[in-house]
């Protein structure tokens, strides 16, 4: 039995490319006392990984060179010398981009798959879904009748954020790249409108889609998308800053309408959901029934096999996925 | 008896100039039932006035053309047909840039000058002081030992904000324009350090002045000053956005380091102190003893005579004042 893993071979200069990664085969690790071996079934790919590939100061340590790429996955315990995790347990953890993960159990959570598939814990019941819940309910705090804008609306986080805004009685307006994504956002996810930022009329189209202007913004993009939103904010608006995909490749993305923060007395709060673990049980309890029943819609783009993870990751950065980008490993 | 007033003669294109204003003499107004006539003693000049001279959407209506410039002043009631305001009362109100102001009493507050001079209600006990109090204690919420940066540190708001940060046990670091202002900020106001942004090494000088980086920022400037601060923020930092003098003349002032908001999980909140009237009694009670005793230091730059108000205002926009810019009218 061998382990296969994707390592960071070099740090990107500018945009990331397939040559930044390396596929390596290693012998299956030995399980020592207190450890488990997990067969990873699905790996989650996320935009934050691009930031960690650079050697710059951020909220997390940079990804180490020549080491397995970091990442969260779900899988099954296939060997255990651990007190509380047993063979057959279905678990979530930071297993990395690899097929077999050795763990001392720290940060590994056993999850309940009675009503939902295991991989839902990488999507609507994982970091994306709980990020959406936190940003909407703890920062945006939308009141019925308000207008909530969600950028990357077809993405794993944005798709849930908009549905939560709808549940709160708001007008939910998405921003997404391309007509197909926008159709999905309106027709399948139930947003009231979606603006295609690739159509070239972002400001005008956003204005048309937000006749009452914008009371809250769930921001995943930054740059010109955030600028367009800032231009439409109402007084006392709230901005939940969850991501800034624009500029992940190191490009300077200046913000031109920061003055709106002042003139509209806005409140902006950025967050990383793994720093708010207290909200997880509440969020999972709130989201799980909708995920199980299908009332909460979510999409997945699933790449097949570890060797395709780098291309899938580059596709994610280019916006080619719809919903949560996963890689099936087993 | 005649009233003299400064009107807005035209809207500026780019930087404001003296020709945008017009001095007009009108007969003293008649006092009708329910009204008072106030002889204005001091007029307050404030950067926000520049924004109102433009015809663009902001938190307040634009200043009307050919009408008296809006502004807050202090003075004495010299005629009254009002139920609760009597001749001789000392009052604060939005009296405009004029020597005699007719009022129905709305928004006019009688103030106590037993221990402090009347004009203190335009400075440390008025909008500037209470803005400082709100931004520091409701948004920055500094803990002892933290580093608080204050831009426009020699200004009416910043000077008080830094002293409140010192009172809270913090390292207070000012940013101001010019060596004289910086000396004043450190030697007279008691800040721990002050960076002269006009010296041309803002980023490096701010780095040297903030060895523990920055936990909270009381922001009055925006633009490159805010960019330099963003580059030095610690995780979970707070930014009280009180003003953005950079760009008041309509110039595009792009922000390049907005990414720091995300990577450092910052909280930014903008405010206009007149929308938080609930905090005024608490703030005045907290500030008044220090103002009366001299423990809270404040400076005033006083122009003589209404006719000099436009030049004083342009000087304020160019940063030529030290502390609160007032105009003595009587």
Q: Can you walk through the features of this model?
A:
- Two copies of one chain form a homodimer.
- Chain A is an alpha/beta fold and 330 residues long.
- Helices cover 26% and strands 26% of the residues of chain A.
- Chain A is built from nine helices and 15 strands.
- The first copy, chain A, has helices spanning 48-53, 127-140, 156-167, 179-188, 202-209, 223-230, 259-263, 280-293, 309-317; strands at 2-8, 21-27, 36-44, 73-80, 90-93, 100-103, 109-110, 147-151, 171-176, 193-196, 214-219, 233-241, 267-270, 300-304, 324-328.
- In chain A, the strands form three sheets. In chain A, strands 3, 4, 5, 6, 7, 14 and 15 form a seven-stranded mixed β-sheet that branches. Chain A has a six-stranded parallel β-sheet with strand order 10-9-8-11-12-13, sandwiched between helices. A two-stranded antiparallel ribbon of chain A has the order 1-2.
- In chain A, strand 12 (233-241), helix 7 and strand 13 (267-270) form a beta-alpha-beta unit.
- In chain A, helix 2 crosses helix 3 and helix 2 packs across helix 8 (280-293).
- Chain A is globular and about 60 Å long.
- The model of chain A has no long low-confidence stretch (mean pLDDT 95).
- The interface between A and B is medium-sized, with 31 and 31 residues.
Model regions low in confidence, pLDDT < 50 over at least 5 residues of chain A: none
| Spatial shape of chain A | globular
- Could you tell me the radius of gyration of chain A in angstroms? 20 Å
Quote the beta fraction of chain A: 25-35%
Helix content of chain A: 25-40%
Count of alpha and pi helical runs of chain A: 9
